[in-house]
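Subject: design request, 280 residues
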């Protein structure tokens, strides 16, 4: 039963750590995509991009602004269409029909929709375009992964608590004579049942250490595969599972805290049941 409690806790915390890393990876991809996404801001006819570029740079969340004059846009469009005589094409259209444009980059994907709305409401701006569907799909993917992780961790947490509770109850029953002797000599409930609570916490600590060791072993194995010219998705997994300095501290601390909490909760339930039976 001790092995069952520790192994169940280890599997739970390993899956929790894996899902947490995947969530961090998706958030990193979302922020990286958002920082590379360009918000195309088309100005009204006759409005010079230089008159708005300073104002746009001051907006919260803006990291870069590039102005494209209508002459530059017309030259690029003519080159893309393969027009050799630009002046004749402009004459046929009665001048350059394009407008000045500002290409705006946001700091992260979360700020793109709000920044686009702010730009659209600015004086002199005619239209704002960006690829919002991709950002929305990434957000929905990240949200879906979070809910799946929450459901999986909740189910396994209840399983771990049940296993720890059963294990501690069996240990308490096996030591019933020792407990009776301690009660006869006047020992308090806290003094009698504290070792069982500590044992439940120990299950969580050992499970957290085992899960952290498994995560490190998998990362090391993937790194060795990536260096031996394996398929590209192996390298993608290795890069995605890379932890920042803050995450290196946060992940093992979270595993220890969750494991200890579940172990204490399971042992507390077991102790309360044993105490209720003995004093009934």
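Subject: RE: design request

Done. Sequence follows.
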């Amino acid at each position: 039963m001790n092995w069952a409690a520790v192994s169940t806790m280890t599997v739970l915390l390993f899956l929790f750590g894996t899902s947490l890393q995947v969530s961090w990876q998706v958030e990193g991809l979302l922020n990286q995509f958002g920082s590379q996404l360009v918000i195309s801001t088309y100005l009204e006819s006759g409005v010079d991009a230089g008159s708005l570029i300073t104002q746009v740079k001051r907006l919260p969340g803006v990291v870069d602004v590039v102005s494209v004059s209508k002459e530059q846009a017309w030259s690029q469009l003519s080159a893309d269409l393969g027009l050799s005589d630009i002046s004749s094409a402009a004459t046929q259209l009665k001048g350059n029909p394009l407008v000045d444009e500002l290409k705006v980059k946001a700091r992260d994907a979360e700020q793109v929709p709000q920044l686009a709305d702010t730009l659209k409401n600015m004086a002199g701006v005619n239209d704002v375009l960006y690829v919002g569907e991709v950002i929305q799909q990434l957000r929905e993917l990240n949200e879906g992964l979070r809910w799946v992780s929450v459901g999986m961790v909740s189910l396994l947490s209840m399983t771990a608590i049940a296993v720890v509770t059963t294990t501690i109850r069996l240990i308490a029953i096996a030591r019933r004579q020792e407990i009776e002797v301690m009660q006869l000599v006047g020992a308090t409930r806290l003094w009698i049942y504290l070792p069982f609570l500590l044992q439940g916490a120990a299950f969580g600590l050992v499970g957290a250490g085992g899960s952290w060791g498994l995560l490190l072993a998998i990362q090391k194995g993937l790194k060795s595969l990536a260096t031996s010219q394996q398929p590209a998705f192996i390298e993608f997994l290795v890069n995605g599972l890379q932890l920042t300095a803050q995450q290196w501290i946060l992940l093992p601390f979270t595993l220890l805290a969750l494991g200890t909490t579940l172990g204490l909760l399971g042992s507390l339930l077991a102790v309360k049941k044993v105490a209720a039976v003995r004093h009934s």
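Residues 38-130 form a domain with the Alpha-Beta Plaits fold (CATH 3.30.70.3040).
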